[in-house]
Structure formats: C-alpha cells, structure tokens
Amino acid sequence: MAVITDAICSLCGSLCDDITVTVEDNVITDVERACILGRNKFVGMFLHDRIESPMIRKNGELVDVSYEEAIDEAAKILVNSKRTLSYGWCSTSCEAISKAIQLAEETGSLIDSTANVCHGPSALAVQEKGGPSATLGAVKNRADVVIFWGCNPAHAHPRHMSRYSSFSKGFFTQKGRKDRKMIVIDVRKTDTAKLADTYVEIDQGSDYLLVTALRSAINGHEDVIPDTVAGVSKEDVLELANVLKEAKYTCVFYGMGVTQSRSKYKNGDGVSSLISDINQHSKAVMIGMRGHYNVTGFGQVATWETGFPMAIDFTRGAPYYNPGETGANDVLTRGDVDAAIISAADPGAHFPQDSLKYLAKIPVIQIDPYANPTTELSDVVFPAAVVGVEAEGTAYRMDGISLRMKKLIDTKFKTDEEIAVDLINKVRELKGGA
Amino acid sequence: MSELLIKNAVVCDPINNVNCEKMDISVKDGKIVESVSSGAKVIDAGGKLTMAGGVDGHTHCAGKINVGRFMSPHDMRMTNVPGLSGKEAPTATTRAQVGYNTPNAFAIGYRYAKMGYTTIGEAAIPIIGARHTHEEFEAIPILDKFGLTLFGSNWQVMEYIRDDEPEKLAAYVAWGLKASRGYGIKIVNPGGGEAWGWGKNVSGLDDPVPNFDVTPAQIIMGLAEANEKLNLPHSIHLHCNNLGKPGNYETTIASMKLLENLKSNRDRQVLHVTHVQFNAYGGTSWRDFESAAPQVSDYINSTDHMTFDLGQAIFGPAMTMTADGPVEYANSRMLNAKWSNMDVELEDASGVVPITYSPKNFVNAVQWAIGLELALLVDDPWKVMFTTDSPNGGSFVNYPEAYTYLMSAKRRAEIIETLPEMALGRMNIPGIDRELDLYELAIMTRAMQSKMYCMDTKGHLGVGADADIAIYDIKPDSVDTTVEYVAVKKAFSGAAYTIKSGEVVVKDGEIAMTPEGRTYWVNAKMPQATVDAMQVDVAKKFKKYYTVSQANYMVEDAYLPHPVEITTEAL
Ligand SMILES: [Zn+2]
C-alpha cells in the first residue's frame, strides 16, 4: 500500500494540489480532500468506458489492431491530408501539448483547443484590453469583495470557494467569509448565488450593458445610466459600483456565462476595462473560471511555441492566427480540412451539428483514455493513459500557476505525449521515404 | 572527442587583455584549450573579428514575456528588423518563428545566436511561477540560460528584515533560489509590489511598506547583506523605486549610495542597478522632463562598488513588462494602452503594457538620449552592461543598430537631426563625441558580464572557457567603425560563425544546428540549524497563506534537463 500526499487533482482548472491518495495493488482505494468530481476521476476511472486497444475502422466497424498498425494508419492519414485539424489537447499535459504542436507544424495542420467552445473569447478580450489578473492566493489573502459573474463554482469548481475565494482565510482576511462580501451576477439563481450576500439577476445576454453601466457609475457618469439596465435597477447598479469603489481588493471571477453569451469577447473586454477603472479608486483583478484542467496550459504552451494561444494554422508553414477563420468550428463548418486528430476532448458531444456532419465525412484519429461520442466518428483510435493519474506532467491552474501532476498508478497505456512523438517519427519516415 | 581549430581570428577578448590580435583558437570537447591535434576540424576566420559569445545579462525571455505574446498577436507579424523578426516557416533545422518584441521561444534562441549571443539571463522569476520560466527556458534552443529570482516584496523577506533575523533571511534567500532554480537576487521597486497589492505604491527609499513596517532602503540593505553572506556569484540586481518618473534620479543615486560601504568576499560589484535609462530622469513633471544622465554618471564615476545596465530605448514599438506592478498600471492609464497585471501571492506583482517610442515625441527622444549618455559618460566600460531591457526599451534584435549609436558620432548625429527641437535642449548627447571601439563594445556585451556574474567560463576566450565564440564579418584591421556603421550593423546582425560549446550553430548568418542549452542555478549552502529554523516559518506560510503546497512549490529536476549547479558556502 502506498500513500501519496500533495497529489494534484486533474479535473478542473482549480488544480487542487492537497490530495492524499492511497494505492493498493495498483488500484486507487482512497482519496482524501478531493471534491466529488475529482474523487470520481481518481477512483471512478475504471467504471468509465475505457478504450482497451488501438482500433481501426474496417468495413464500418472499429476493430482491435496492434499499436504499430494504428500508428502506421494514422500517420498515413496525416501525410495524405492537405490540411488536418488537430483539436482538443486540454485534458492532457503541457508536454503532450508541445508534441501535438510540433506534429501540427510538421504536417502543416491547424491546431485548436477546447477554448474554441468555452474561454476562447476571453483570450480575444485580453488581446483587446489586457488581462488584469492575480494568482488565486492574492485573492485568498486580500480580497474583501469576490464576484462570480456567469459562473457557478458550487457545481463546476466545488473546492474553489473554500480554497481560494469566498470562504478561504488569508493574511488580511483572517475571518474568511465574514471578512468578505460575496456577489453573484447571473441569469438565474444558481446554488452559488444562494450563498451570496448580493445576487444580481440580469437579463440573458445583457452582461455588456451591466458592465457599461458599472463603468459609467465608477467613472462618475451616473447621469447616463437609465432607470433599468440589463434588468437591474439603477439604484442597484449604483450600489454595486459603490461596493467596488469602497472595496480594498476585488476579484471578478467570470465564467462561460460571460464569454459565451451575446457580445462574447466584448464582455471580457468590458470587464477588463471595468477592472482598470476600479483601480482608479481601489484594487481589482479578474480571473477566468477555466473548466478543463489544463486548457490554460494549452494557451500557455501554444503561445510560447507559436506566438498564439489557439486556432493556429500551419498550412502555409509559419503560424497564422485568425479566430473566426482558423478556429476548429470555423474550418469544420466551412469544410476546410480533410482530416482530423482529436485528443482529450469530445467534440462529438460538444460541437454544433454542422461541424459533426462534416467530421463524419473525413478521416478522424482519436487519442483518448475513454470512449465517447467522438469515438463513433473516428477511424483510428488510440487508448491513452489518464494524465495526472497514470502519467505525470505539467498543468496550468486557471490563474496561470503551473504544477507538476504526479503519476499515481502504473498503466499499460501509452501517454498522449508518447503517441504524439510516435506519430511525428512515423510521419517523418513516410515523408522521407516519399 | 571533437576538436576545432579557428585560424586567423582577430580576437577581441578584454578579460584576457587581448585587443584585436590575430591568433588561433583551439577547441576541444566544448572548451577552449591550449592546442589541438592535427586532426582537428579547421575554420579559417580570415582576419575577421572574433569575440566570446555574447552574454545578455538582463532580458525578458521566459515567463512574463508569454503574457506579452498573449496580448499582442499583431507583434507576431512585425518585420521591423529584417532577418531577425516576423514570421518564418519551419525548415529542416529550425522550428517556425514569429514575432518582434515578443518572439516565440524558438525564435529567441535562433535570433540571439545569429547575433553571436550564447548566454541569456531572464531578469525576473517569481518563485511560485518559476516552473513556467524553466519550461520556457527548455523551449529556447542553443543558448545557455539563467534567471534572477524576485525577493523585493516577498513577505518572508520583509518579515525577517523587520524582525532583524539576518541569518534566517539568508537561509530563506538560499531556499528561494533553490525553489526557483534561480541564479541571483532580483529586487524590483522594493516594497512597491506589496503596496500594489492594495493599488498603492511606495514613494521612495524611506516610505514604509503598508502593513510590514519596513522601508525600501531596509529591504535593499537586508537583501544585499544576505547576498554577501551567501557568497552568491552575482550581487543584488536592483530595479530602483520611482521608475519612469521625472526627477527619479535622486532616488536612483540615493539607492546606489546605500551600498557604498558593503564589502564582498568575491571579486565583483556589490550592487547592479538595472535599466538605469528609466531611472535617470530629471525635472519635476513631464513638462520640464530632462536627462539626468550626467548626475547619475558623475556619481557612478566616483565609486567602484557597482555596475549597471542601460535599458536603451529603441524607436518604434516595444513591450514593457516588469514586476513593477504600479508602474505598468500608470503606463496603461497614461498611454491609454491595454494592461495586463499579475499580483503574485506573498511575493510580488507584475504588469505588461505595450508602448511605442516615437522620435517625434519629446519624452521618447530624451529617453533615447539618456541610455546613450549613460554609456558614454561613464568612463569605465567595465561598469556598463549593454541592454535594451528587452523588450522594455525595445527588442534585443535591435542591438546591432544600437551598437552603431555607441560607436559612431556620425550615426548619432543622423538620428539627432530628426528629433524635435524641444528634446535637444533636454539632452546632452549632441555634445558628446566619445565613440566606443570594438574592445569597449566587447566589454559591455560579454566581458563585464563574466565578472559581474562571476561566470568564469563565460564572456572570454582564455583556456578553460566554454567554447562559445562569435566570428563577425568585419575586419578590425581595416574597418573604421566610426564611419562604416552600415557594415558594423550588418556584421553583428548575422554572425559569420556562432559556436556554442564547440559546435557551429550559426554559419553565414543562418542557423546550422540547434543543440539544447544549459540552465545555471545557484545552490547556496547555509548551516542546517539556521535552515531548520527558517523552514518552520516557511511551513507556516504554506499552511496558512499559499494556495499551493510546499511540496508542489519547488521546481523539480525534470524542468532542468541540462542543469549547471553552482554551489556556494555561506560566510
Ligand atoms: Zn527588465
């Protein structure tokens, strides 16, 4: 029996790193401190539909093949493709992401992450206005006002509020929740909202209006604010603005309710401007509530390796970036790629119908520990080790702090990184031989 | 066993008092040796200028630069310096390249190597963010790397100074260097990072840090004493308070004076003041803003305890990035520019803001002059490190252009002619006729770094040095660097050869191969009892305040695939 302390939970962007895991006969038998979602990932993994063998679709059916045969077939698809879409790479290690980028570069592919369907617009907002942010510990130790805007940590990031935000105790916040004002802005009263001191219910898709009204109030232009904004009374807007001005330290945590609602990146852009304005009076920062545990890592690695955080097109050799044109769904709906390699993501469950229809028409390579709807669309399938459980590697928390995930148990499966490296080598061999 | 013989090199090697003398250089197994066998591979340098590989001792190349990249996709296609910027498709030897101020990691390695640089130092590593820095180091090909760790607004540091615990402070610094795999102590706007946690700043050396009851002056002194107690290879590396403000030269000189009487056991300065261009401002507002380089230079000429670097401004777009959080916020409001910020728990702050230095803008024109004035008014080149604080003053790919400003009064005059009349009265550069020669340039770009970082295998070509060698396509015998600045710039922009650890990595200005570089870090040993006492305090910090556990805080060996561990023993 082995007891592993300080293990990192590779479920959500909170990357809790205080988990104690007990392993008996290469099986995780106990998990301490993880939330229910994290616990499921640690111990429930064998209950999932694990892919057991490399597979190739033959006569319409996926059949088991050797790893070598699958690598051979996948490499042929990549070499014969004029433009492959490489997608996902967010629930895996930075080391794997780095190799995926190299594979995309060497095959002239387009590579994009799951940010395409979640926090991609926040990246655009940073490019427009910047990202005034902080590490989660700055919030824990200083913040007397915490705002959750369009996010529901009670469900999506269960330990966030106790470790980093609402309830956490820090140097200047010794009383934790009592020292803090908690505000939730959302379109419906979520379980997080039920815990708040103030719940501001806004009309669907009206985030940008509220941001603009708050900026007006903070910048001393109350007069331009109408009686009701985004379904919120002017009085409540002014009161909220006042809280922000009077606060010692505010953090706005924002979620997909902001990034994926109407106005998309303009919302993030607006929040960033709001943060800058609040800093004329007090201190404020913003942090995106990233879902997939290493979607932040994809953005980081892609940025230092290619200059861009997502939607990177190597078709012309040097990286080209134009989200809206080079995003995964952009090229799928346009029918602008002729093959796909998908790892650690499930577009089969999350992409719009038009994209899926097109994916069904082209050869698809899947790398994943688990069978999912994407498997049904795939022509070559690689089972992979579960990173953070069966393989070590780096991941980035939602605030940009990187941590080293541990390997907790042994596995017969190859890692995403190893598979990507084998593909790079096989592609080189095929190209060299041609 | 690989051997190399470089024949007919005209060597400029100030550490060994060699001033453009024709000689041969023997290389064996990555090191410079007395002689090699007749089987050695031969490179005929043909009388070309030969120097040790360049050392950029203060650049922003890993970590925070990624925020700059993230914010500025437009930077990726900028081609301001042909051959050393913009997009390039991958080749058989190189990965895809992008960018100008914030190039991707691969491009950083290739472009420094093309300019004959073989070692670079990242100027600011937050301990909790150090893993990220080392990930980017690993992605930068060819070059050797090292980084300076931020201590200037660190809670544990401020508490130990407040509580007069110098031994524990030294032990903490040693531990922080180990945790971050850093090479030395960086202090940025001491105390200001903590004040910025509340949206405030400190106003000068004696303005107490909110809630911590220490002053910036005490932080500087405390860390400098710890630095010498630990016998670190570098001195403290100080970014002064009040950066970027008119009249700040007084704070700068006062900060320098603080360390006048500090002694070191090592043969180096006790203080390095960084990017002094941003801290040598006269006047009381932007209206009467003027160069205070003469005052600062006069002081530096009067003392022997310090070195500094320029932070030269380059006209055109740049990207400011610093742990000086309040400065970046102020920049963004003043320039109406996008602003990124990072408050780092228990340690520091930082910010990133784009900027453009325009020759038509009188303030920018004076800034341009101040950097050059500092380089030319300080008599002893051994005190001066050439930098642009890349990319704060401008991208490092402008170094060859900036060399010509230092080497040619004629070239300077051409630029000065284009500057606004109002700026000319606020600067001194038009009246300065000093022109650096190749020997002085070699001091400022590699030799002084060898001394100021106590890197005795870097920055020179003596026996035992690393075989990091740059051969530039100009002939010292015949070139007049005061006039032929076009040829000078061209030569330094694409080395005829860059040799790294004995391997030809650049030939005729193109990348020939891309070996992986090493990472230097300092393991400073303290008595175990002191370390244990310090650890008790640090453990409390992790239990109560940090959001990562101590076990996950320390950078693991996996992130330094080619480490060079420098050990020191405390006094
Ligand atoms: Zn700097």
What does this structure look like?
- The complex is a heterodimer of chains A (434) and B (571).
- Chain A has 434 residues and is of the alpha/beta class.
- Helices cover 35% and strands 21% of the residues of chain A.
- In chain A, the strands form five sheets. Chain A has a nine-stranded mixed sheet with strand order 5-4-20-19-18-6-7-16-17, with helices on one face. Chain A has a five-stranded parallel sheet with strand order 11-10-9-14-15, sandwiched between helices.
- In chain A, β12 and β13 (232-233) form a beta hairpin.
- Chain A is globular.
- With 571 residues, chain B is α/β, with parallel strands linked by helices.
- Chain B has a domain at 66-86 and 126-131 and 148-455: TIM Barrel (Alpha-Beta Barrel).
- Chain B is built from 18 helices and 24 strands.
- In chain B, strands 6, 7, 8, 9, 10, 11, 14, 18, 23 and 24 form a ten-stranded parallel sheet that branches. In chain B, strands 1, 2, 3, 4, 5, 19, 20, 21 and 22 form a nine-stranded mixed sheet that branches. A three-stranded antiparallel sheet of chain B has the order 15-17-16, sandwiched between helices.
- In chain B, α4 packs antiparallel against α5 (166-180), α8 (249-258) runs parallel beside α9 and α12 packs across α13 (409-416).
- The two termini of chain B are 39 Å apart.
- Classes of the chains: A alpha/beta (434), B alpha/beta (571).
- At the A-B interface, α3, α4, β8, α5 and α12 of A face α1, α3, α10 and β16 of B.
- β8 (132-134) of chain A pairs parallel with β16 (340-343) of chain B.
- Bound molecules: zinc ion (ZN).
- Zinc ion (ZN) is lined by residues 58, 60, 123, 274-275, 389, 392 of chain B.
